[in-house]
Each structure stands twice: as structure tokens, then as C-alpha cells.
Write a sequence for this structure.
């Protein structure tokens, strides 16, 4: 009788141990795949493109902004703004100039000597304070459109000078903007910690 109960007990234990071995891999593989977990990855918001470079993933959006900042006379010594015509001597591209109010005065088509730059005239310049304010406004507009905070949106800009294209054909600076923002989990839920 003792032999039978020992045999039964050892068979039961052996079956239990082998059953654990068969069942445990199946238990380890049963997991719920929840939406928005790290294995789902991240995506960029609508309108943004994902860019992967040098180990960094960025969400960026490029646009040529309809932002024009006309040039002006920023140097108080040369307060008189002169709109130049393309092809005029001295400023063949039509760069506008600023002159003194008295002394040698130049008009739109007059040939101006290069030697006079800095003494009788200077090139009109972009007002950097106005340009910086315009760029800050671009960031604010994008931040508000996305419903984010200022730290969640970055704006990088480049600019080009266009002659005879601004208000009353003034020389102007046209801005191109790249917007950057954080990627979001595929499920759409943004984690509070970054």
C-alpha cells in the first residue's frame, strides 16, 4: 500500500511538473497589446513629416511664410529711404539705399559710386526687432493651432532678400520657416513625462 501511494504521489508530482513546463510558455505569451504603448511607436501630428537623421527623430513642417518685412533706414545718420530700380548703377539688383537728408542726394535711377557706401549712402536694412517679433508670432500661431505650449513647438527660419517686391516696391525680406514638435504615441495619448 505504501508503495502504491508513493507511486501515485510521484506520478502526480511528475505530471504537475511537466504540465507547468507545457503551460508556462503559453502563459508568458498571453499579453494584452494596449494602444499607445512603446511597441506601437510614435507618429507626427497632422501636417508634420517624420525625419530621422543622426539618431534623432523629429517631426517637422516646412512652409514659405507669407511674412514680409520691408527694409528701412535703421541707421539714424542715413534717414532718407530711396527705392532703387533694378539695373541702376551701383545697385544693379535694385537694392534700396538710405542717404543723408542733406548733401549728396541720390534718386531711384541715379548711378551711385561704390566708394560712397558708408559716407554718402548705405544699403537699406531689415529691422531685426520687427523680424524677431514676426518670427515669435509665427511660433505663437503654430503653438495655438496645435493646442500646445511654447516649449512644445520650435521654429527655425531662414530668409532671403527680394528687391522691388515689398510695399511700394521696397526691398523686403521673405521668411521660410521650419516648425518642429514632439512626436506622439501612435495611440494619440501624450505622456506627461518626456
Amino acid at each position: 500500500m505504501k508503495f502504491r501511494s508513493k507511486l501515485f504521489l510521484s506520478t502526480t508530482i511528475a505530471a504537475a511538473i511537466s504540465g507547468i513546463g507545457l503551460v508556462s510558455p503559453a502563459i508568458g505569451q498571453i499579453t494584452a497589446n494596449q494602444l499607445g504603448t512603446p511597441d506601437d511607436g510614435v507618429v507626427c501630428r497632422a501636417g508634420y513629416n517624420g525625419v530621422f537623421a543622426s539618431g534623432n527623430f523629429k517631426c517637422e513642417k516646412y512652409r514659405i511664410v507669407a511674412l514680409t518685412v520691408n527694409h528701412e533706414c535703421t541707421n539714424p545718420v542715413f534717414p532718407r529711404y530711396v527705392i532703387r530700380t533694378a539695373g541702376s548703377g551701383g545697385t544693379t539688383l535694385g537694392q534700396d539705399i538710405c542717404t543723408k537728408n542733406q548733401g549728396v542726394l541720390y534718386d531711384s535711377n541715379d548711378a551711385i559710386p561704390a566708394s560712397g557706401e558708408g559716407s554718402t549712402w548705405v544699403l537699406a536694412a531689415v529691422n531685426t526687432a520687427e523680424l524677431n517679433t514676426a518670427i515669435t508670432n509665427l511660433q505663437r500661431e503654430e503653438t495655438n493651432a496645435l493646442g500646445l505650449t511654447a516649449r512644445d513647438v520650435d521654429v527655425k527660419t531662414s530668409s532671403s532678400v527680394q528687391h522691388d517686391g515689398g510695399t511700394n516696391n521696397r526691398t523686403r525680406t521673405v521668411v521660410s520657416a521650419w516648425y518642429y514638435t514632439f512626436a506622439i504615441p501612435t495611440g494619440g495619448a501624450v505622456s506627461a513625462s518626456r
Q: What stands out?
A: The radius of gyration is 35 Å. The chain has two domains: 2-31, 43-185. The mean pLDDT is 77. The first helix runs from residue 2 to 29.
